[in-house]
Design goal:
Layout lengths: L4 E5 L2 E4 L7 E6 L2 E5 L5 H14 L2 E5 L5 H4 L8 E5 H10 L3 H11 L18 E3 L2 E6 L2 E7 L8 E5 L4 E5 L17 H12 L4 E4 L7 H23 L4 H7 L18 H21 L9
Parallel strand pairs: 4-5, 5-6, 6-7, 11-12
Antiparallel strand pairs: 1-2, 2-3, 3-4, 8-9, 9-10, 10-11
Helix pairs in contact: 5-6, 6-8, 7-8
The structure holds zinc ion.
Zinc ion binds next to α2.
Length: 293
Amino acid sequence: MAQNIIRVRDNIYTITENLGSNDSAIVTSAGVVLFDSPHKASDAMNWRRFVESLGPTKYLIISDHHIDHTLSAYFFGGEMIATVGTRDTLLDRHPTSPFMDYVLGHFDPTGVPLIHGDYEYRIPDITVTDRMTLFLGDTEIQLIHKKGHTPNNLMAYLPKEKVLFSGDNVCECGLPSSQECCLPDVFDTIDFILNELDVDTIVPGHGDVTDKDGARKYRQMYLDYVNEINARMNRGDSKEKIQDELRFPDLIHCDTERYTGYPDEMVDGFQRNSVSRIYDQLLAMGGTWGDRK
Ligand SMILES: [Zn+2]
């Protein structure tokens, strides 16, 4: 299948059209650096063919422990870099065979045989606690750990190119699942990106390549969602009632024209678990999200 690979800069390629994470390749004179790996094993075969045409892979940076960023790490070379939390979480509870067969059986049947045989869930080789910088020839890649989408998120910032790979701390096509999100870090991290980083281009975790305006829109959408949960809590709605009624805009897990998404019961589970997580965190903050802008 032909792939629509976007050339973000002369030396940076990304693919945004697949189910799961956006996947990127940064070409440096010291080797290729990958950011995230495809969700579908069949997409990984296509992406790997392209990546190998760019030269040897030096590093594979992973933004968080979720299956849509990590399942295919096994198929790629280079040393795998992630936060300590991502490594610990994958060691503790990486997805295993019956579940992976179930989801891939639904949206990637041709990929199922690829996650059997020698396949094993890949665990990061190198961990980042807070920050780390890679100097590869003329290319500087700053790795920045920021909580938000999960406690474990890692972003890659290229100051010379003014490009940020945000992972799911910024998405372009609706909200990701909030089932492991950290409040208020979700917003603090977007504010960090907006105020502290000199970027012209943001390659988000999911959706089209965007910029700071896109990050602002995403922030507002997320804020509206959290505020809505907070308002319903404060008028006395139970968590279950909010879970039954409220749906965030989700174009990440659902079917699209380009691919089959997750089974309906899982998509519904992401919605319900997201409300639960945010409800519990708001409750722990005294139920007063207040007038955060
Ligand atoms: Zn994701």
